[in-house]
Amino acid sequence: MIRFAARLTLAGGREAATRLVIIAAAVALGVGMLLTTLAGMNAVNAQNQRYAWLNTTVAPAAADPSVDPLWWLIRQDYYHGESIGRIEVAATGPDAPVPPGIPRLPGPGEYYVSPALGELLRTTPPAQLADRFPGHQVGTIGRAALPSPDSLLIVIGRTPTDLEPLGARQVTQIMATSPSDCSRGCYVGIRHDGMTLVLSVVATALLFPVLIFIGTATRLAATRREQRFAAMRLVGATPRQISVISAVESVVAAVAGTVVGFGLFLAFRPGVAAIPFTGEPFFTADLSLTLVDVLAVALGIPLGAVVASWLALRRVQISPLGVTRRVTPKPPRAWRLIPLVAGLAELTYFVGRRPPTTNGQLTAYLSGFLLILAGLLLAGPWLTMLGARLLAGRASRPATLIAGRRLADNPKAAFRSVSGLIVALFVTSVATGTITTYVANRGEPRTDSVAATSLSKWFPPQEGPAPTADQIPAGLAAIPGVRSVALVRANPVDQPPPLEVRQSPTDSAPDRWWWPGIVTCAELDRLAVFGTCPAGAQVAAVADDLIGERAWDLTRDSYVWPAADASPAEVDRQPIRSVVVNTTSRAAFEQARTMLINAFPTGRFPNSTAEWEADSARLLRQFQQLANVVMLASLPIAGCSLAVSVAGGLSDRKRPFSMLRLTGVQLRTLRRVVALETVVPLLVVAAVAIGMGFLAAHLFLRSQLDYTLLPPHGSFYLMVAGGLAVSLGIVASTLPLLRRITGPETARNE
After folding, report:
1. Phi/psi at 735 (nearest 5 deg)?
2. pLDDT greater than 50 at residue 523
């Protein structure tokens, strides 16, 4: 029987071959995406493991008492907005621990660099970067210590006398515990659970349309197959034999698709590795599969195909006459809206009632989003039925009436072929709405704003006496491209009063009326770009970086700092809180940073407000890119599902359509019927999914951040329109079949 089934599958004519190819292609897409998802999660774990050694500051003491302590200091530096990990070490004996990726500890005046940083050092003028690092390069950090090919890391050798005043700590072992498993306050690495959640959502959003595609492909020419299987039953075939024939067909397609899927994964793995899902790209080898992953996919997909084929032919298994017992299915009821309404109600409830803990917020918001998504999938047939009835009720042409009646007759089948879009469009809309609004309110400042062109070096009192004005490098002002050098002095009111706010002159937002620094109003006027004093004031209270809360809203050009309770004569007598350098070019910016690092090597390195904000904004933009990938990949896949569904429907209805043509119905009318049956569910699903996504994003933003949803950029709407156009174009490619399969010869009885 298996040999007979294989012959029917492989030599069953053009229809069987087409169906086999389509199912195999759908399975290959699904397998490729599933393998990429599993490999991506493994890559996150591998990348996070290589972050472990950077948390050596909190490593426990070594069990071996003979280990010599190692002075260890790690700080964050920047170059052109990219983060540089600067590790400085000093051995106290020959048995001090050695970080991974280097053969030995660098001695004083030596350093190891990552390949990416080494390339920067070779191509950048020394005054902008290399002069920050004392000594010379003696080697390259190996891959075992690099989280990413683009990681910018440097390990500098110093003496204990150099490092102790800088705040270094003594350690006796290098941290080897992944940040995801660290319980000692590891602060360098990936938030594994959050990234896994994001990748899982992306994988689900990508796989769901593929699963719909596979399901649609397996139903291609289902009516004719069921009739043939029923005929076999009538001539004596047993239900088990029919199941074997169907299972062999499904397994052949699934095995072929699985093999091709593994090939697709291997072919696209280098390209996927270059995508910075975690903020940095992966090494290609990180996208690896465990033996369990390979076996689960290689065995699970064909097994799932057998189960799916058995479920698809359950009517034939019940009775050979069950195929002919076709009745109009019951229309969907309004109760399907309950989960959707419940999800919206849950998110609405938490507006003004944000849970106080992170776990509470995750539970509240994720359950609300999942309820809405499940509600959309459950309510889809009911919404499709409403659209179909509206279409039929307003029909003025036969094609519109036929399409509306047919959709209303079986809205579940009509919705099934486009349901894959629900997840993709909902996830993309939520991500786009949330990220667009967040970035607009709290995102990275413009590259030409003062928050991006100025950098500050802060001198906190707990790090020792502040420098005098004579100790500020005189060469700062002489750097070509430096617009100004400003000194911010300590506010004599050194304790913040009880939190109060006052309305700004424009009444647009509350401003703080106390800041830790002061500067004269004459100096603010000279600087010109850092705000002004209130009328009549001589001294202003300012932030250490002269930016402060204005980083959240740099559109207010007439920013007014609050007045300080001090006279201009008192300002110069106060200790220096910070030095702020404003520049007109990136070269001047980096040269000034290098000069300040060399002059003041203790504490946090100088940076701009934009660089701090860029880290979170960069990750958000990457999440937005993932959401765009979901949408751009899902829409064509949904179009393929629709095309297969249309082709299958035409094959099953070719005799009724032939009869209509014989009675005088024009071919273009039948094409309108098919087009409307496709367009109505597609547009209804797209509109509802996008609308619900934006509404859910708005409720989340109001609850979590007290923001109002801002409309996405035009690129979002262009992508949606372009994706829908591609989907409809794929569907339109099936319409020429109508002429070929509805000729007069098809109207005969079989």
Report:
1. -65, -35
2. yes
For the chain, the residue count is 750
Structure token pair of residue 20: 């086999």
Q: What pLDDT does residue 504 have? A: 39
DSSP assignment string, 393-418 = HT--SHHHHHHHHHHHH-HHHHHHTT
Give the pLDDT confidence score for residue 2 in this predicted structure. Answer: 64
Beta strands 70-79 and 82-91, pairing class: antiparallel
Q: What is the pLDDT of residues 152-166, one digit of tens each?
A: 999 999 999 999 888
Q: Is the full-model pTM beyond 0.85?
A: no
* Six token digits for residue 619: 């990750």
The CA-atom distances, in angstroms, between 335 and each of 281, 286, 331, 382 are 46, 47, 12, 9
Strands 82-91 and 153-157: parallel
The CA-based angle 84-87-91, given to 5 degrees, is: 165
Q: How many other CB atoms are there within 10 angstroms of residue 709's CB atom?
A: 18
Residue 478 DSSP SS3:
coil
Residue 27 to residue 121: CA distance in whole angstroms: 48
Residues with Cβ within 8 Å of residue 11, at least 6 apart in sequence: none
**Residue in this structure with the two tokens 């007045």, named with its chain if needed:** 563
Q: Tell me if residue 72 falls in helix, strand or coil.
A: strand
What's the N-to-C CA distance of the chain in angstroms? 27
Please tell me which of 299-303, 386-390, 575-579 the model is most confident about, judged by mean pLDDT.
575-579
Q: How does strand 110-113 pair with strand 153-157? A: antiparallel
CB 519 within 8 A of CB 539: yes
d(CA 94, CA 382): 75
> What is the rounded average pLDDT for all residues in the chain?
81
d(CA 338, CA 164) in angstroms, rounded, equals 64
- Per-residue confidence band for 40, with pLDDT thresholds at 50, 70 and 90: confident
* Bridge-based pairing state of the strands 110-113 and 136-140: parallel
What's the number of CA atoms in the CB half-sphere (13 Å) around residue 561?
32
Nearest to 378 by CA among 322, 424, 332: 332
Taking Cα atoms as reference points, which of 496, 487, 544, 548 lies closest to residue 520?
487
What average pLDDT score do residues 371-394 get? Answer: 86
Residue 507 pLDDT class (50, 70, 90 cuts)? very low
522 has pLDDT over 90: yes
Cβ-contact 342, 375 below 8 angstroms:
yes
Look at 436 and 512; give whichever has higher pLDDT. Answer: 436
Q: What does the DSSP 8-state code read for residue 349? A: H
Tell me the two tokens of residue 271: 């390209």
**Residue type at 518?**
I
- Cβ burial, residue 642 (10 Å; 0-12/13-18/19+): buried
Cβ–Cβ < 8 Å for 692, 372:
yes
3-state secondary structure of 580: strand
**Tokens found for residue 611:** 């660089």
Per-residue pLDDT, 302: 79
What separation in angstroms does the CA of 564 have from each of 80, 523, 541, 653, 691? 35, 14, 5, 83, 49
* pLDDT beyond 70 at 195: no
